[in-house]
Description:
Number of domains: 2
Radius of gyration: 20 Å
CATH class of the largest domain: Alpha Beta
Helix content: 25-40%
Structural class: alpha/beta
CATH topology of the largest domain: Rossmann fold
Strand order of the largest sheet: 3-4-2-5-1-6-7-8-15
Largest sheet: 9 strands, mixed
Order of helices and strands: HEHEEHHEHEEEEEEEHEHEHEEH
CATH architecture of the largest domain: 3-Layer(aba) Sandwich
Distance between the termini: 48 Å
Amino acid sequence: MPFWYTRSKIAWLLLPFSLLFWLISQVRRSLFQLGILATYRAPKPVIIVGNLSVGGNGKTPVVVWLVEQLRQRGLKVGVISRGYGSRAESYPLLVSAQTDPKCGGDEPVLIAKRTGAAVAISANRREAVELLLKSADCDLIIADDGLQHYKLQRDLEIVVMDAQRALGNGFVLPAGPLRELPGRLKSVDFVITNGGQNVYSDAVMQLKPHYAVNLHSGELRPLNSFSEGVAMAGIGNPQRFFTMLEDLGIHLSQTYAFADHQPFDEQLLNAMSRTQPLFMTEKDAVKCSAFAQANWWYVPVDAEIQDLTNGQKIAALFAKIDRLVGKSEA
């Protein structure tokens, strides 16, 4: 919503509803904290990767980065997710690289493909945790999203934020994009801003592309070998993807921005381009590979995360995780 990023008349008109939303959410959180509403403590440490605002902020690349970093430290990692957009016949569901994204959701399937980690999805996070631990040997669990899912106890919280949009107009839903007020950031362990630095940053994430992958043949091509094309994106901030391609010297004759988790079909994509290369994100590609055409390419990105304190805060983050795993093994 454009008015979420300005304090327009519409935002002020909706502010009474935001106050009601905030009051209900605060009461609910307090009931969990006081033990009046039951919570679930997983038998392994839980790391939340979430955000304060609605919409895509770059959580999935952070989850992939975190899984890879922890594996390098010799840890076995599993991932749980709500599985937004999935339409499985039953839950919880164990997701693999071969799972149909219609059943498993685009982000869980992407995480499974990129990392090979065990991934379980369910709106009931306890069910997801129990299936995950039944199916895989894990030292710890990463929860993709769920910062406000207080029914699940957590040991460490990482917030991911779009650096440009930040916290919008600072209002909670529906007057603004926030699920909780900015003061909530004081209680989290680490804040990663995607695409730049702002006043909340502990570290800055840049998403780095290296090549394009053909959906039909699997061919890898350097991005500098393309001069023009068409681009589509169904992510939280499609313009970021389009700008990335243009900054690499690819002239985009047309761009198509869709809502996050947008489902796609062959007819829709064929109408975009039959001759020029059609570029899409890796997240979108998992939903399109079954009917891919020869001119369709996806652009995988790797998260490069720069600590703003010469490595001290990232080192402290992983030291916390080491202590958590040590406690779980005691």
